[in-house]
Structures are given as C-alpha cells and as structure tokens.
Amino acid sequence: MSGIISSISQYLQLYHLVHYAVILFYPLVRFTPQLRPHFFPSKQDFELAAMESNVLMLLGAYIAIKGRRMESMDAYFSHVFFVTEAALCVIFFREDVVLGIFYLLVALIVSFTFNAPDVDKKHRVVAVTLQRMENLLANKGKNGKIVYTIVEMYAPWSPPCNLVARAYACLSKKYSSDYLKFLKVNVSAQNDVAEKYNIDVGVRSRKLPTFILFADGEELFRMPHVYKNGSVENCKFSEEILEDEFGLAVRTLGQKMPTIETDETKEPNKKKKSDKQNISTSSKKNE
C-alpha cells in the first residue's frame, strides 16, 4: 500500500497540480450554474454543443492512441497536459475570443513557469529497439568480469509498469556501471521484441512488466517467472525487491553471484527457497 501511495504522490507534485487546475477550469466554468452565464452565456444547460463534443472525442481518442507509444508515464503526463490545454483553447476561442486569449496566456505562463519533474532526465535507463538491444547484449566481460544487462519489457498504458517505473529509474542511477546496464523496451510498440521474448502485451497480461537479466548476452533470470505449464508467477515489484532479487550490489561490480540462479524451468506452487536450490542448465552455462 505504501508503494502505491508513493507512486501516486509522484504525480501530485506542484507541476502536476497546476496543470490539473488549468484543465479543470473548463468543466468548472462550463458546468457550474453560477459560473456558466459569465463564461458560456450562449449555453443554457449542461448539454455539450456539437463542436465541444467533437473536440473532446478527438482529444480522448488521440490521448488513448498516443499513450501506447510513450516511453514513460512522466512523458505521457506532459503530453496529455499539452494536447488537452490546446484542445480547450479551441473550445474557449469558439465561445469567445477574449476568453480564448485569456486561457491561452494562462496555459503558456504555466508551461514556461512550472518545469516537469526531471527524473527521466537523470536516470540511466536506455530506451532501445530490438536491434539496439542485441548490439548492447553483444558486449562481453573481460578478465573474469561479467557484463550484466537488465531489460524492462513494459507498456506505457500498463498500471504495474507505471508504478514500478520510478523504482527502476532510481536503481539505474544507483547501480549503473561498466558491468551493469539498464535498458527498457516498449513492447506494445515493438512487437518483434514481445514475440522474441514471449511477452504478452494484452490488456490482461500478467507479464507486464517483465524484467530480464542477461549475463554476457545470455538470459539468466526473469521476473515474473514463467513455469513449465505456462502459468506466470505472482510477484510484486518495488525498488527493494528488484535490488534483492537481481543482486544488484554484486552485479554492478561484474562479479558472479554467490547464490544459485533461477530460470523459467521452475515449477509452480513451490517455496521460493527450494526453487533457488534447483540448479538449471542455463544457470550453469551462464554463471
């Protein structure tokens, strides 16, 4: 619960709150009986005019489609703020030119005054395509060191992906090194990656997000695990869990983990401890 609250609070910063207020100005003055006569004197009831309906429907469709290709939730919010305020400017201009100019000026002042949170600018997660990913995975360790790569398979419209995005970014800032790289792939926009790594991108998928650890280019471990019978492991994602499960403190130094790895050959309904005692063929090969 604390993780969910923390994730939600990240989108209640001053930048977000001011833009929420700018956007909510329209429904406030449009549907409040006491305010409507001053801002929309030509509208006598709550029913939307044809122009308003068309603009809002196009806006909703555009946001839904564009959201599937955004690289992060932060970028998505920024884009939604921009296009929504632009659409509302059109509605206000059609009602009254002075009102439209006023709203445009307010939107511009807010946009230039309040900068978006800079988490995306500081993290060390690299967004890649399949070709770029394969090129990076081709790097091998030297002098007994191992080059590890963690790849997040995500979809920007997936709530679990959005909830863990910041935790993954924080881990990249903390542990990224010459021996540990952090990548991410928008599998909803890159079907070739989803198909190659068996990632279901449906709206009911239990494989979003999927974190895959590679050692010298070979897949070593993934969360959630996919069992032999095709079922998907139930697991939670947080900064602490990812840090522990992937042994980031050791891998950032290019060292082998002292414990035995797990892979997709695990059987369901067994305790995690006993799972890690089963040596998989791929684990032996990779480490």
Describe the structure.
By secondary structure, the chain is α/β, with parallel strands linked by helices. Helix content is 50%, strand content 10%. The chain contains 14 helices and five strands. Strands 1-3-2-4-5 form a five-stranded mixed sheet. α1 packs across α9 (159-175), α2 (14-31) packs parallel to α5 (73-95) and α5 runs antiparallel to α6 (97-113). The longest helix is centred in the N-terminal third of the chain and has 23 residues, at 73-95. The protein starts with a helix and ends with a helix.
Helix content, binned percent: 40-55%
**Strand count, sense and closure of the main sheet?**
5 strands, mixed
Task: Evaluate the radius of gyration.
Answer: 24 Å
- The total strand number stands at 5
Which word captures the global form?
A: elongated
Number of helices: 14
Mean pLDDT: 82
SSE string: HHHHHHHEHEHEHEEHHHH
N- and C-termini, Cα separation: 36 Å
pLDDT below 50 for ≥5 consecutive residues: which ranges?
Answer: 260-265, 269-287
The order of strands across the largest sheet is 1-3-2-4-5
Share of residues in strands = 5-15%
Broad structural category: alpha/beta
